[in-house]
Amino acid sequence: MFPDLSYILNAIFGTSVDNAFSIIQTFGLFLMLAVIAAGYVLYLEFRRYEHQGLLEGILQKEVIGRGPRLRPLIISSIIGFLVGFKLVFIFGNFEMFKADAAGVIISTAGNLWGGTVGLIIFVAWRYYELSRSKLAEPKVIQKIVMPHERVPDITIVAAVSGIIGARLFSVFENFNDFLQDPIGQLFGGSGLTIYGGLILAFMVVYWYVKRLGIKPILMMDAVAPSLIIGYAVGRLGCHLSGDGDWGVVNELSKPAWFFLPDWAWEYAYPHNVINSMTSDPQTGDYFYGGETIPNCGGLVAADGGTPEHCTRLAEAVYPTPLYEAFLSGLIFIVLWVLRKRLKIAGMLFFVYLIFNGLERFLIEGIRVNEHYAILGVTWSMSQFIALGLFVIGVAGLIYLWKYGWRKEAEDEG
Q1: Percentage with pLDDT > 90 across the chain
Q2: What is the pTM of this model?
Q3: Which range of residues forms the domain containing residue 241?
Q4: Does residue 282 register a pLDDT over 60?
Q5: Residue 9 exposure: Cα atoms within 13 Å on the Cβ side
Q6: How far is CA 50 from the centre of its chain?
């Protein structure tokens, strides 16, 4: 496994691990790649809708030359404070940052003096820029903004709201832990629930695109393949880093029909990023443990000592992130083919909900997760949500088949 970039470079070039490149965590790297992949697919779909005439440019007015104003200065002060607050702290606690970059960034840890200096620098620079652009008489200009030009903004809104939603949903799932340590649970570096992110991101992006003048139902169709390809890339990051999102202990022998390598059937996640975690095959409850890899598998740290990640699971588990990445890739291909064939707006999105719900429900059956007894069945919270998404998907297809808006333009290109 590759907990950070230094381990990836070791596999390619044979360089030492735990060097300066270890700042870049593998999961964070793949999370960034997932956002880029999702944004690019959304961009392609917006361009296609524009070509069909289903999406049109939005006329916007902009006032230029007004000089320094309170709102941009406040925004600059917030950004400057956060940048200085974190950067100075990271500089003084580099080992902590290297060990858990995401945890340091998301946490409340920081340096107040650094934040104050950052605030002053950013506000001063913004004030200077606005003063230079000031005109004797401000002008009002009009310009057409095409929907595809809004993709970076939409992607950022979705990413930020998704992270917040994932955190809040994790708090809901672990409410007792939250009561014991509210700050740690809200701002710690671990504990994100994907469905919470998807739900909040959907609501926020729906409101945002409607405010921009983009038809939400077309946005729903455009975002369906975007979401699933981003999910596939993100799950690859989970697998390659060994972040604990794996399955229960695999006690079954590899069947004859399984043509993939042994590591695709069961895997001990050597050098996993959390050093390491295994599960009780009877209850599915997980706990920290594992075993030390002899001689760390031949890896050597940059300082000549023992590398930081030298453990593996005591018992091999189902590599469920790999399964989800594969299944999500297949779903993306299906949606990509159907996107030009489904002529009723919104249908593609509800097909996505059906496939997503079915995939997640099945995978949860062999995945490490806490289970709840509700209405006589014992499932994980994600299974209950997955079932809900499946039902919503089916109901949405039936409704749209009867009352949906049929796209007038024929798909091209």
Answers
A1: 52
A2: 0.82
A3: 5-55+215-403
A4: no
A5: 17
A6: 27
What letter does residue 252 receive in the DSSP assignment?
S
* H-state helical runs in 242-304: 262-265
Both structure tokens of 366:
């062999």
200 in a domain, yes or no? no
What three-state secondary structure class fits 108? coil
CA dist list (Å): 93 to 52, 97, 111, 309: 53, 6, 11, 20
The mean pLDDT of 287-294, rounded to a whole number, is 74
Inter-residue contact 144 to 58 (CB < 8 Å): yes
Burial of 380 (0-12, 13-18, 19+ CB in 10 A): buried
Cβ–Cβ < 8 Å for 220, 346 = yes
* Helix-strand-coil split of the chain, %, nearest 5: 60, 10, 30
- Nearest-CA neighbor of 386 among 350, 346, 356? 356
Question: What one-letter code names the amino acid at 174?
Answer: N
Alpha carbon distance 396, 404 (integer Å):
10
Examine the domain organization and report whether 399 and 293 are in the same domain: yes
Asked whether residue 255 is domain-assigned, the answer is: yes
Identity (one letter) of the amino acid at 302?
Answer: A
> Of the candidates 66, 188, 187, which has an alpha carbon nearest to the alpha carbon of residue 131?
66
Q: CB of 368 within 8 A of CB of 288?
A: no
In this structure, are 132 and 66 located in the same domain?
A: yes
CA 173 vs CA 191, 337, 391: distances in Å? 10, 36, 22
Question: How far is the C-alpha of 244 from the C-alpha of 319, rounded, in Å?
Answer: 10
pLDDT on residue 60: 81
How many domains is the chain built from? 2
Q: Which two tokens stand for residue 401?
A: 């088949």
Beta strands in 20-174 (DSSP E): 58-64, 139-145
Over 80: is that where the pLDDT of 99 sits?
Answer: no
Q: 3-state class of 276 per DSSP?
A: coil
Give domain status of residue 100, yes or no: yes
SS3 389: helix
Run of H or E residues at 171: helix 151-173
Read off the DSSP letter of residue 406.
B
